[in-house]
Amino acid sequence: MTLLLALAGCSPGLSDSWWNHPVSQRPSQAPTAKPVQPNALPFGMIEVVKGDSVHALARRHNVAVRDLIDANRLEPPFKLLIGQRLRIPTAPPPRVREPVIAAPEPTLAARPGPVPESLIVPEPMPKAGKGFLWPLKGSLLAGFGSNGKGLNNDGINISAKRGAYVRASENGVVVYAGSELKGFGNLLLIKHQDGWVSAYAHNEILLVGRGDRVERGQSIARVGATGNVKHPQLHFELRRESKPVDPLSQLVEG
To answer: Are 196 and 241 in contact (CB under 8 A)?
Structure first.
């Protein structure tokens, strides 16, 4: 699974030790003092290593991505530096989940791309309102259907400021959170009742993971330009029983 955020930079280099100096510049004998052991990190602190990201650290330490960001006052695009020290907020007590049942493989929001693995997820909560909420405010870049150049858009593309919050259009459960669908960058698929699935692509960062229940209007991601787009935007789709539906026929203000 490709990580949401790439690490940037590297730790500062160390000065050469005395035994790497030319013989004429070495001291007459090796230092007799015991080597200084690195100070232990304070309780609740961790040090970023290669491969770490905000999303990966939040999952590893069982804390919410939003809590980790707020605890360390991280700013978009939330890139981490190797050697950077972060405070891990106190993890909340484990949630008591209702009994779960096996669900079919999540509906694909776009093609081409690999089929996400089968998931065991809870059933989505009943819908909270009529229609689906607009996932964010912004100008329409591309509409549903054919663009006249032999390409077909199974959803709509909405221009927005990088880092703007993306909202869940309806109560549901996350059945996919990742970046394995080629061209769509960081992608969320949310299953709703009555056979509906909503898709949210090109995000900078995902704030929820698969198996999480989400509520209508809840912040689930932040706008980015991941995948095959050059400018910050959200690609949004609605599907019912795997068939794409024009979002503009279902979206309501809220």
So the answer is: no
